[in-house]
Amino acid sequence: MGMDAALIETTNNVSCIFNSDWFIKKYKLNCPPDFRLQNQTIRNNTGNLYPAWSKLGTRLKLIPLMGGIDQDVLYLDVDGKTAFEKEIEYFGTRMHEHPNLNVIYKGKPLMLVFLGAGQDPSIADNPLWYQIRQFLKHHPEIAGKYTFRQMAGYLDAQPYLWATQSTPDGPVKINPAYGFWSWVDRLNNRTCNTPACPYYPSYNETKVDGESRAENFTASIATAGIEAGWGCPNPNSPPYCLDDSLRYGDLGKDHYYATFHEFMQYARQLDPIFLIVHQFNEFVQPDEGFDANTDDDIEPANLWGHGAVTAVRHEVRVYRHPDDDSPDDQP
Fold it and tell me: How far apart are CA 71 and CA 36, in angstroms?
């Protein structure tokens, strides 16, 4: 599909995975032994990508995504370390052993930290995202090894994080005081009941050789709505939540991956350093139950003759080579 790297993540239950039984009992984590083992197996399988891909000789690189969702990731364990620190060490060891798989950014291997959705913008409140930055600031032995960026969800609905407070008519620049990267944003130009509408995806900006450039942009095949909660739609609602970004666009399946196409049009305008194609909850029901129009899986499935793999490959090729006159690979 034309990708350079894959994002890998162990973002949930980080303290349950990395900390001691003493820690789990002290902070009363919901972490029974079988659940702990399952999560540690996920961690191990994720870490095994490094030797497995090195053996395969793949050119795809790996970018680890750390867990910064839960406050307890910064609590000290009996060994004097935090779960956040231990997770960095776990993936850092594998990155050191397989340096050919690292993405080097700003002169160091790149690590991302996932924050979830709904960020408190006030430093006076000492939010977790700020605590994590302070932790790294006070641990130069860690910060000196890696380039860290923080990633949050649904920045499209958090105008207090934007550089400009206004109704958007295109991609939204994030205030550099926060500098968050988008995990997923909606792209919805329809009317919906929130001051942030219409929804547009976000991006952070950085300096490259003294010039400003978009640092990141995240494109999705589809995203479920969040304004009416995860239970939308309900028996009294329309077929879809009003703030959904549908796979086939507003007019249904005859529009070939209209949402992803529109995302990628904005990506071509912004020309970000990192273009991320979002993929989540593979092989399970999305938030609104299975419906191809709200499911953002990229898989070999052929839905109404239109496969997501083909659509992504086509859009990435056009993104990389806008003047390419080779035959179109769409069905």
Answer: 18
Tell me how far apart the terminal alpha carbons of the chain are, to the nearest angstrom: 15
In a shared domain, residues 179 and 322: yes
Ranges 115-119, 126-130, 247-251, 321-325: which has the least confidence: 247-251
Alpha-carbon distances, residue 169 vs 74, 158, 201, 258 (angstroms): 39, 15, 10, 18
One domain, residues 141 and 274:
no
Contact 296, 278 (CB under 8 A): yes
Last residue of a domain, one of 133, 153, 173: 153
- Kindly give the residue spans of alpha helices, DSSP state H, lying in 48-162: 49-56, 83-97, 128-137, 140-143
CA distance 329 to 314: 6
The predicted model scores a pTM of 0.91
User: How do residues 244-287 score in pLDDT, each as one tens digit?
Assistant: 888 876 544 556 788 899 999 999 999 999 999 998 655 555 55
Q: Domain span at residue 134? A: 1-153
The pLDDT tens digits of the residues spanning 44-67 come to 999 999 999 999 999 999 999 999
